[in-house]
Amino acid sequence: xxxxxxxxxxxxxxxxxxxxxxxxxxxxxxxxxxxxxxxxxxxxxxxxxxxxxxxxxxxxxxxxxxxxxxxxxxxxxxxxxxxxxxxxxxxxxxxxxxxxxxxxxxxxxxxxxxxxxxxxxxxxxxxxxxxxxxxxxxxxxxxxxxxxxxxxxxxxxxxxxxxxxxxxxxxxxxxxxxxxxxxxxxxxxxxxxxxxxxxxxxxxxxxxxxxxxxxxxxxxxxxxxxxxxxxxxxxxxxxxxxxxxxxxxxxxxxxxxxxxxxxxxxxxxxxxxxxxxxxxxxxxxxxxxxxxxxxxxxxxxxxxxxxxxxxxxxxx
Length: 316
Fold this sequence. Notes:
- The protein is an alpha+beta fold and about 325 residues long.
- The protein has helices at about 1-15, 60-70, 105-125, 140-160, 165-170, 170-180, 215-225, 235-250, 255-280, 285-300, 305-315, and strands at about 25, 35-40, 45-50, 80-85, 90, 185-190, 195-200, 205, 215.
- The protein has a five-stranded antiparallel beta sheet with strand order 1-2-3-5-4, with helices on both faces. A two-stranded antiparallel sheet has the order 6-9.
């Protein structure tokens, strides 16, 4: 069904008959549940076809959010043709180079791309949505609690086989959600990490932005600086914070920044556990240990350290 839907939409967009050869190359990217294909034909330069199901509400947001971000002058792929009724959209092909694929390059060579990424998130911070623009529910205490529950279910219980009832009842976890949920005024990408930042023409472009909502900017910053896929050293994280300070003329408050990092790392670990459980994609397995080590760093000496200790010990 996904392939047929994309193919019929491509033929409609190109205005070609069935005799014109069209190749669809699957692109494996992230875990959003969407079908993403690179479309090649003799009559048009390559572009991307995306098909989504209705299982996740945020996937329906891709088209309107793409239009909004483009109007706000952020670097996102242009929409070439949309067929929302059939849950298909055709977009500009930005290529396959992401911050993740550049991981093996020396850190100093990658810094300009992080500067480019930070400029994008800083522009997003000031972007104004139309009054009638629909966004996903904001990052409030309930959403942070949902992320924690995701971590308990898929990482602690399903992946590690531990009892998460003590964590679920621990007031420290709820206090974290309540504290972070007190402010949700600014737009956040929601999944601002190396896989979702593509490099084209020496600039960073945003993809997978359908989860756009209001929240804390520190969450996006922590998502990138404490990205388990990249596993930045403490010196590299400090350099990235300095780069952000040059971009935004301020640094995040350290305690709040580490709280956002802890929350994001738990969310990521829950996602890795879910993918291993439901899709058996082993690529994500080693990132659990990396995320656990980072989570241990940002919670050391805080009220979160004790309740999370059994989980982190089990992963080690």
